[in-house]
Amino acid sequence: MGILEGLVSGFAQAISLEVLPFLIVGSVFGMIIGIIPGLSGHFAMAMLIPFLYKMDPAPGIAFLLAAHATVAQGGGLTAILFSTPGTGQNAATLLDGPPMREQGKAGVAVGAAMTSCFLGATFGAVALALLLPVLQQVVLFFGPPEIFVLSFLALTFIAVLGKEDMTRSLIAGLLGLLVSMIGIDNVTNQERFTFGLLELYDGLPLVPVILGLFAVAEMFDLFVKGGSLVDKQHGALSAGQTQKQIFEGIGIAFKKWWLVMRCSAIGTTIGIIPGLGSAPAAFIAYGHAKQTSKSKETFGKGNIEGVIGAEAANDAVEGGALASTVAFGIPGSSSMAILLGGLFILGLETGVDMVTTDVDIVFVMIFTVIFGNFIGTIFGMFLVNPIARATSIRSSIMVPILIAVVVTGAFAAQGSLFDIVVTLIFGVIGYLMKILNYSRAAMLIGYVLGHAVEKNLYLATQLKGTLFFLSPIPLTLCLITLGFIAYNVYGMIKDRERL
Amino acid sequence: MRRVFLTGLLSLGLALPMAGLLHVAPVKAEDAASFYKGKKIKFIVPYKPGGGYDDYARLLAPVMEKYTGADVEILNKGGAGGMTGANEIFRSPGDGLTIGIINGSAMITNELAEIKGAAYKVAEYSYLGRVTADTRVMSTSVASGFNTYDSLKAVKEPFKVGATGLGGSTYVDTVIIGKVFEFNQDVIHGFDRSGPIRKAMKRGDVVGMWGSWGSARKTVKSGDNQIVMQSGKKRHKDMPDTPTIRELVKSLPNADKAMKIVVGWEALSAVGRPIAGPPGIPADRLAFLRDAFAKAVADEEFLGKAKKAKRAVDYASGDEMSELTKEATDLPDDVRKMFISAIRGEL
Predict the structure, then answer these.
(1) Which end of chain B has the lower number of beta carbons within 10 A, N or C?
(2) Residues of the domain holding B320
């Protein structure tokens, strides 16, 4: 089947009556899972797997993938409205989303976030389609040396995230790296910092750490400050105001199309690299948005560009993540591993077959991601009003409820009491970091990338020797990294002279 | 109103101890089938959702419900390479209401190596039976040119084999069989999972890897990789042209000693993926569960779904499993020592 033929057939299947209802049900389901903190895309997919046995390939794929695609949208909604990221990948949205809500601009933030999600997802899906002819080469491009240098480049974004206080950001970032060392070292099989606890063998679990650092910390802060989730002066928005704001947000997202494109490109690239996941994608895109912005100083205080960058990237990841799954059957994340299992059940083979004879199925995936996110966007906008009412509830009532929800979410992901302890401990750490002005984003990036950097460095030196970075591609990436650091240092010196 | 409340409180106070008494009533008074009727069985999967163990559990749950009359609830308890879940099954009350699937060979290697987290004894679980056992294979990329055992033996420069971390089964297989044949190999270990190793083979970073036939099959079908040797007493029906390790060992100068290692190593993989409960399940309930499991894995609906999900089924009964695990944990001393040093990365 040719690519063009596959595109037409894929589109026709995606909008057919056999597929579309499943796509709609899947996206609404994913949205709801996204709103519940702790439960993420792979949970939504695992719940749908049993239904696949009796389904045809196209509706099955649409059902499964639509549920996965909209999870980040639901998560963005709660990140902005309740300072509680529904999933790990929405953590970056917390940097500028909640400040906007406090300023009475929740509707604008949600409108922009939803639209950026949709645009980012579309970008990722279109990129996947465009890459189809060269997909295998693109995925093979990233081996241990390349992944090491790229993760290292991503680590340098720690510096950007907290430019106003470089020392504190570095401390937070290095703390994150240290925390990532907890657990059994994959290479030497040695326990590190586990204190003999079996629960720490696999390292600290990601979802509880994120929920603690961001959601619980915000709750503590809100509780201490009192009041409600919205600023007293602004009060809760009326239905009409919210509606108006949402449209304003949509408009802004479209107006900043170039930012959306760049952040989506970052997301898609990170998605292609297996093992990095979508949480760093959103933070790196955020860092990029901040660095290229004309008003850097308002980032973290409710700059809409921060919301747009983060949300565009975390949905653009999907297109990239699908690439390595589809091209080789090598899943980049646990969600993609479940998708792969689903594909088997539906009788589909990944690899060469998938990008040649079954290319229409790839297009069903592409259109599912696009339509699913579109449906999620529409559905989400209707949800804003009823949910936004709750933001004016006073904190002494709201905080206990949200903490209960967050703790339940932390428990539900793995069914482990230990995860609740991790959530609460990181809640305290996150709160202290917040009031002492240390960047939690920098810590999270260090934590998420530490493992990838270390492991790939080890593999790269085993494979290519100590000077592995001197081969052409890693060398180019190294030079970009150095250039990036130099540019930042230069910017910092200039800022200092100005003072 | 107050009287109603007090009466309610009083009856609750009386009812609770009575319910407690009922609960400890002797088990033998009722037969196993009526015991399970409407009860809830916890089915523990020692890994996160997605992947082989989870798939098997989700395939089995509905048919186990059909044959036990109980509700089967799947709980994913990932962690410590499957040990967290295995420990949890081992420690749960032996009432026959908690079972799970375990990674038999990995749990045995951890137990042998006396890894601290291994709080179970593989030979002491109550086994319902085995759902599958992997045929272990060494695959090499077609592009590497290493297409037979002889070509691997003939190298002057060491060839690179990819593996996961120390102690993982891809690693243990690589070093043990490498030792048996005295391969001139470099083991590149530290990959997260088998997926990235396959990608490294495709990139030409490494020439081959050890793994299960189930997961290697796809890359052979696509023409990327080939199988150079397989485990087992006989050749697998899908690989009639690939020699078994036992066949290859015969030509070695120290064939007897090598064979002893291979037999021990294969005993590990024969344990496969059993369904197990904690020690001490009452005999009648265990017999009932074993019977239900035997019926479940022979069920047409189950087999159809398993085939669709490309999950091979290789049943062994609960009694056979108890034998297999004893064999695998009761190795000759020198073989056991060799395995332990392989697991610890000292080989």
Answers:
(1) N
(2) 30-133+272-342
